[in-house]
């Protein structure tokens, strides 16, 4: 039984990865946006602004990496709606494979997409001469995995409970942008007024950005253990609600 479930998860994951590589426009579009932020916005301010002893372009780099993972992962949930329209998901749901494992397979597919795009940004980090050590690189991969798993699960949750592409766009305004803007990706969270800082502490991306700043630049506010621990908690919660939504799909 365990082997059958693993084979089912692998089959779903493999399908998602193959689709990703076939849709070259999807990869290009997802990489161009962070590059514009890094070399346009970051370089423009970086010429005159320094934060925590580093120029702004370098300071903002971990935040842009988290932004890439966020947008890639959450909007991955759109493919659930698309698969429902094509009746592919219906065929998978009636298979002997539990809906919980279907969710895991799709979640791992979304995590893989985010990982691939992150690798491109790590190459850019070398070009920018960001001081990333081998240990820091491994720690950064852990942070990216936890962040991608958390955000992909949230995206799949919305994909499971929403019925149209148009309704999913509301997620951008009410979930994605607030998560990004209150994470400290573009500026220190200490710059915010105290009443807004409360929002940053309940934002999982705050800890992802801080962890990457710590592993890549050595300028993290919290310890890596705290950042990783909080991300794990959010990740478990997100996977829980995502798998619940898949179990209830069609009944909500």
Can you walk through the features of this model?
With 252 residues, this protein is an all-alpha fold. The chain has one domain (2-247). The protein is built from 11 helices and 2 strands. It has a two-stranded antiparallel sheet with strand order 1-2. A hairpin with a 2-residue loop joins strand 1 and strand 2 (54-55). Helix 2 (24-46) runs antiparallel to helix 3, helix 3 packs across helix 10 and helix 6 packs across helix 7 (134-161). The protein is globular and about 55 Å long. It starts with a helix and ends in a 5-residue tail after the last helix.
How much β-strand is present in the residues? under 5%
The CA-CA distance between the termini, in Å, is 29 Å
The secondary-structure element order is HHEEHHHHHHHHH
Task: Report the C-alpha radius of gyration, rounded.
Answer: 18 Å
The number of helical runs is 11
Q: Biggest β-sheet: count, sense, barrel?
A: 2 strands, antiparallel
β-strand number: 2
Mean of all residue-level pLDDT scores: 84
